[in-house]
Structure formats: structure tokens, C-alpha cells
Specification:
Layout lengths: L3 E14 L2 E14 L3 E5 L6 H8 L8 E8 L7 E2 L8 H6 L4 E4 L13 H12 L4 H14 L5 H4 L9 H13 L5 E5 L7 H18 L2 E6 L2 H7 L2 E6 L2 E7 H6 L4 H8 L51 E4 L2 E3 L5 H12 L7
Helix pairs in contact: 3-4, 3-6, 4-6, 6-7
This protein binds adenosine-5'-triphosphate and magnesium ion.
The site of magnesium ion has 3 residues, from helix 1.
């Protein structure tokens, strides 16, 4: 069995809009290992959701997607997800079966017209067992596991009858009911109050330890990242600008954007008015993007004539630590090498 679970290579998702081509995902590459937990972090609009939606073939149908997403099932040959029919049998077997997703708003996962039970049972019967009695047993067990009170009774309730926290738990239960190899969680706790958020995070950690699945956790909240994941990809303007393990991220951040994100974490006893007050300006919309580093207009460390001219490639700087910033000679060297090889980053 391969140690690698998911391999994303130079994924690009472009949206042809009236105003121009919007580069929502602009050359994202990463590898996720079996059982590993990875975070995708960055401000609103940096392309986190579009990245995972593209991986799962859930991007808008007018999106132009290139690159490759290889999924390594426990048995059998790797599957290139980008080559599958987005509405076909194969992707549906992977989605909700081997790879499950949970979202910020549970109502996007649940149909309001059917009971929680019907929807969870459908997932179980589709991916695990055709036997109805056994499916009910599994459903009750998993609802129990996610901390639902009266699980047997919950099966007959409709999504709107549950509180926000309980709906979130029901969604996690549904996502886990297929025993996925990978759980993709897109801001699943942002809509919850702090106490419930802490409970749901703890629950996901427990379930991860128990089931051993990989998690790709998407959030703008570095506090959540610190608690939830082993490795982190920091995104900015559709690209990964830093990639490392969670300790190095906090104690030894390389990219000025990462440092700014860390400085913007509200400190106890210190008033914080804006989420990212320490970063000048806002994330630009990635249409007709000028050449150079996307963070250049907001960067305190920008090098005139370099950062506004060339794209810094994501480059290994230390062991297991890559960054895309020209303050590191390794990145300058990599950019020069790319230029010599004729790799042109068209904008
Ligand atoms: N359906 C769409 N049509 C046009 N533009 C879109 C669409 N969906 C996303 N975008 C744009 O693509 C870029 C990336 O969006 P995405 O939703 O991936 O960001 P995000 O990092 O998930 O943000 P958030 O933290 O707010 O969820 C943004 O500039 C966004 O405005
Ligand atoms: Mg999002």
C-alpha cells in the first residue's frame, strides 16, 4: 500500500469572467500521506475552497481546470481524479466514499427534505453494506460516537430540527459513516460558538486517532491549525507560499505573509479590532494579476525590482520547510534556474 494518499500537481482553476480570467487556484502542488493531517490556511478569498472543490470535482462547471490530482486507493492503481467525468460513477464512488467532505454550513450537505437517518443510511448503504438492519446499527453507533443524544430518535429528525452544533455533528457522522481514507473539512466550525467549536474540534481529533484517516483541514484560523494538524500549507492569491510542519510554522515562519498572519492572532489582554490589522491592505481579486509576487503590494520586506518583476517559486529552504519569497537566496536561485530553463510564468 502506498504511503501517499493524495498527490496534487500544478493544479490551476481559472474562472472566465466578464472582467477577465480569475485565477482562483494558480499552480498548487502538495502531497498528503496516509493518516496525515494537513491544514490549508489563508485569508478569505485566497483560494482554499476552490482548491479542495477542484480536487473533488465540485468546482463550477465553467471553471477551466488543469494539472493533476492523483488519489491512491488502499487497493488498486492510483486514480487521476482530474481525468474523471465530473458527474460519473467513479468520482461519486470516491466522493462520499473514500474521500468525505464537511462544510461550514451543514445544510449544504443535508437535504432539508429528508430525515438525518435517511441521508446517513443512504451513505452507509452506498459505501458499506446493503443490509438495512446492519446499516441502522452502524448509523446509530456513529451518531453515538459523535456525541448525539438519543441517536436512534435522531434518525427520524429533519436537519432543521437540530441545533447548529448537533447538525455539525450529524454532518461529521455522515462524512465518517463511509469510513473514508480522507476527510476534507472546509471551515466546519466557523459558524459555531466557541464552546461548541472546541467540542467539535476535539471530536474530530478523537475520531482521527481512532479511524486513522487523513484530514485536510481548511481554515483562516491559525489557532485551529495549531490544534488540528501536523503540516500546513499557507495560501495566498491561489498559491501555496509556505509549506512546513506546524511547529516550524509558528516558531520559525519563513514567508512575510505567514509572519503577518501569526502577528494578527488576537492576544489575550490585547484588543484586536481587525482580524488581520497587521497586514496592510486586502487580498486583491486575482484577475489580470500583475507579474511578480502576489504579496508584493502588502509586503514590508519587498525587494523593489525583484519581487514586483518575478514570481517567487515555492522552494525548499530547510528540511521539510518550503517558502516562496525572494528574501531567501535559494528562492532567487530557483527563479533564475526556471528562467534559464525557459519556464515562463505567464500572467
Ligand atoms: N463561483 C465563483 N465565481 C467567481 N469567482 C469566484 C467563485 N468562487 C470563488 N471565486 C473567487 O475565487 C477566489 C478564491 O475563492 P475561494 O472561495 O476559494 O476562497 P477561500 O480561500 O475559500 O475564502 P473564504 O475563507 O472566504 O472561504 C476569490 O477571489 C473568489 O472571489
Ligand atoms: Mg472558503
Amino acid at each position: 500500500m502506498s504511503d501517499i494518499l493524495l498527490e496534487v500537481e500544478n493544479l490551476k482553476t481559472q474562472l472566465p469572467l466578464e472582467e477577465g480570467m480569475l485565477k482562483a487556484v494558480d499552480g498548487v502542488s502538495f502531497t498528503l500521506r496516509r493518516g496525515e493531517t494537513m491544514g490549508l490556511v489563508g485569508e478569505s478569498g485566497c483560494g482554499k475552497s476552490m482548491t479542495v472543490n477542484s480536487i473533488m470535482r465540485l468546482a463550477p462547471n465553467y471553471a477551466e481546470i488543469s494539472g493533476s490530482v492523483r488519489y491512491y486507493p488502499a487497493a488498486g492503481a492510483p486514480v487521476d481524479i482530474t481525468a474523471l467525468d465530473p458527474y460519473g460513477q467513479e468520482i461519486r464512488a470516491i466522493r462520499g466514499g473514500e474521500i468525505s467532505m464537511i462544510f461550514q454550513e451543514p445544510m449544504t450537505s443535508f437535504s432539508p427534505l429528508h430525515t438525518i437517518g435517511n441521508q446517513i443510511l443512504e451513505a452507509i448503504r452506498l459505501h458499506r453494506t446493503a443490509d438495512k438492519k446492519e446499516a441502522v446499527k452502524i448509523a446509530i453507533d456513529i451518531l453515538n460516537r459523535v456525541g448525539m443524544s438519543n441517536p436512534a430518535q435522531r434518525l427520524n429528525e429533519y436537519p432543521h430540527q437540530l441545533s447548529g452544533g448537533m447538525r455539525q455533528r450529524a454532518m461529521i457522522a455522515m462524512a465518517l459513516s463511509s469510513e473514508p481514507s480522507l476527510l476534507i473539512a472546509d471551515e466546519p466550525t466557523t459558524a459555531l460558538d466557541v464552546t461548541v467549536q472546541a467540542q467539535v474540534l476535539q471530536l474530530m481529533r478523537d475520531l482521527q486517532a481512532e479511524f486513522g484517516m487523513s484530514i485536510l483541514y481548511i481554515t483562516h484560523d491559525l489557532g485551529v491549525i495549531a490544534r488540528m494538524v501536523q503540516v500546513v500549507a499557507v495560501m495566498y492569491l491561489g498559491r501555496i507560499v509556505e509549506f512546513t510542519d506546524v511547529d516550524s510554522l509558528f516558531y520559525n515562519p519563513k514567508h512575510p505573509y505567514t509572519s503577518a498572519l501569526i502577528q494578527s492572532i488576537p492576544k489575550i489582554g490585547k484588543k484586536s479590532s481587525a482580524r488581520l490589522e497587521s497586514i496592510r491592505g486586502a487580498v486583491p481579486v486575482p484577475i489580470n494579476r500583475p507579474p511578480g509576487c502576489g504579496f508584493y503590494p502588502r509586503c514590508a520586506a519587498a525587494i523593489e525590482g525583484l519581487c514586483n518583476r518575478l514570481d517567487p517559486p515555492l522552494t525548499q529552504i530547510e528540511d521539510h520547510h518550503a517558502a516562496a519569497c525572494f528574501v531567501y537566496p535559494e528562492v532567487v536561485a530557483a527563479a533564475e534556474e526556471n528562467a534559464a530553463e525557459g519556464v515562463i510564468h505567464a500572467n
